[in-house]
Amino acid sequence: MSSTIRLTTAQALVRWMTAQRSELLDGTVVPLFAGVFGIFGHGNVLGLGTALHEVADELPTWRGQNEQGMALAAVAYARATDRRQVMAATSSIGPGALNMVTAAGLAHANRLPVLLLPGDTFVGRAPDPVLQQVEHFGDPTTTVNDAFRPVSRYFDRITKPEQLIATLPQVARVLTDPADCGPVTLALPQDVQAEELDFPAAMFEVRVHRTPRPRPDTRALAEAAEVLAHAERPLLVLGGGARYSGAGAEAIAFAEKHQVPVVETVAGRTLVPHDHPLYGGALGIVGSASANTLALEADVVLAVGTRLQDFTTSSWTGFAPDVRLVTVNAARFDAVKHNALAVTGDARETLVELSEAAGDARSSAAWVARTSEVKGRWDAEIDRLRAGVGPAGVLTYATVTGVVNDESTPDDYVLTASGGMPGELHGGWRTGEVKHGTSSTSGATMDLEYGFSCMGYEVVAPWGAAMARERTHPDGLVTSIFGDGSYLMLNSELYSAAFSGHPYVAVVCDNGGFAVIHRLQTGQGAAGFNNLLSDSRGPGAGEGGVRVDFAAHAASLGAHVEDVPFGSSAEDFRAAYLRAREAARAQRRPAVVSCKVAESSWTESGAWWETGVPGSLAGHTSYAEAKQRQVRWL
């Protein structure tokens, strides 16, 4: 007779979490669940909260200030571990739960794992309606947690303890599967959390989860090899799937053997050293003119581990009309898009097998020379943008990025998410030393969250990333660069990181509002409206109006602060950034560098992005012309 253990539902869930293990790319076995971010309230404090307290040393619980913020930090943790480890986030019912929906959307869009454990209303319904319950007149089974369904890869509501036996293997599958990876939501009614059951002891045996590496279909592989063998100007595009597979070294070997220029998407950034002779730059709207030129001239595009979103394809105007598209992806859903020749399989293993199948196929020396030519021109442009300061003697985004790039080490980690900074980091960052094997890369690794482009992510993500990397890269440091708009959206977790003792540097670039959207607005001929502080409604908009003292605010949240005054030079900023790095490490807390930057100085790739432009605006003519270039892909 099999043995059983009597536990509450919450205890069983937590005990199962502590028994799960994950194998890293280098073969090291670590806990699959590294910890829990939690804000307690009625709905999770007694059931799940008690269970978490009992295992606090095995599964640490970290206190957040805002449910969205802590859940975003949890997603950033997974990104920083190449999806090999997962954080959970728990909230009370009602507004606490709904605050995490945005984080679920971000994780879903970016194919990143996170376990969300929102409290839920009573299954027994005796006290209905309870505090924070939203009642649905025609369906009493519906709660606010149903809002997680469209942004979860896997959703379940645990209404009986024994349901855990069936659902937990599925939870682990989704969190660790390269094709289905994404957020998992388990809604936990507070009465069920406290119910007891004799659970089978086998549920809690240690289990090591190894990321599967499915091999491609041999016929699809042969067809792809045939296409590459006849390519004159092939281009290799590396996406996030190549990173999570640990395929960086194999991708470079493929490029070198077949002399194929290689470019990166935002999720695949920093896989290839900047100085590699076959590196063509960062692809897409916020990328480089060099990579975009190569994409337009390529006759075959081999896209590995990317879902080819519009910022990568320049709204599907970035490739030649007659290009042959070959995709390699663990998820067939992504592989088959846009009539591509789909090769479904693990990025690392497929690149190895495809290289063998392609034999001695090589592109021409002229195509490789073209790569060097266009990249050289782009490098010169970045050098020009980084030099000095912008209009009126103000620092620019490019200058700030250049300084951080110069001072970063191979073990560092840099991130951003929204506004104008993605164009600087993706388009202008120069990856130095890259180490493949022990992790996907450690050459100043980048987390550029541009799948959901979630303002505020870059403010809280360094907390999760710093947690993740303190074990794997103890000599490195996380730096996040973002604008004043993002800071104002979600700054409370600065205090969480200061309180918990996790160091990183946050660079706040103040350009007076949502300047990148102002650029989009006015660049199409619309009037500036409600984006910059100066063109928004209210008495605070005018000269000398209400503004935020970011340095004072960050200091009040427990951060070390370096304030770079208006009109400072690049070397002034460099000195402040270096002091911030030193202080963050020495004081074990975030260090914030606050600086004024130019309102309208940007790194431009020249690519087109589709946004709906009314016929009354000046930009409608170029919009209509660009739409014609999409016909091939419709």
Automatic annotation (TrEMBL):
Residues 445-594 form the Thiamine pyrophosphate enzyme TPP-binding domain. InterPro entries: DHS-like_NAD/FAD-binding_dom, Myo_inos_IolD, THDP-binding, Thiamin_PyroP_enz_cen_dom, Thiamin_PyroP_enz_TPP-bd_dom, TPP_enz, TPP_enzyme_TPP-bd. Residues 221-354 form the Thiamine pyrophosphate enzyme central domain. Residues 36-132 form the Thiamine pyrophosphate enzyme N-terminal TPP-binding domain. Keywords: Hydrolase, Thiamine pyrophosphate. Pfam families: TPP_enzyme_C (PF02775), TPP_enzyme_M (PF00205), TPP_enzyme_N (PF02776). Its EC number is 3.7.1.22. It comes from the Bacteria. One of its GO terms (molecular function) is 3D-(3,5/4)-trihydroxycyclohexane-1,2-dione hydrolase activity. It is an enzyme of class 3 (hydrolase). Belongs to the TPP enzyme family. PANTHER family: 3D-(3,5_4)-TRIHYDROXYCYCLOHEXANE-1,2-DIONE HYDROLASE, THIAMINE PYROPHOSPHATE ENZYMES. This is 3D-(3,5/4)-trihydroxycyclohexane-1,2-dione acylhydrolase (Decyclizing). It comes from Nocardioides marmoribigeumensis.
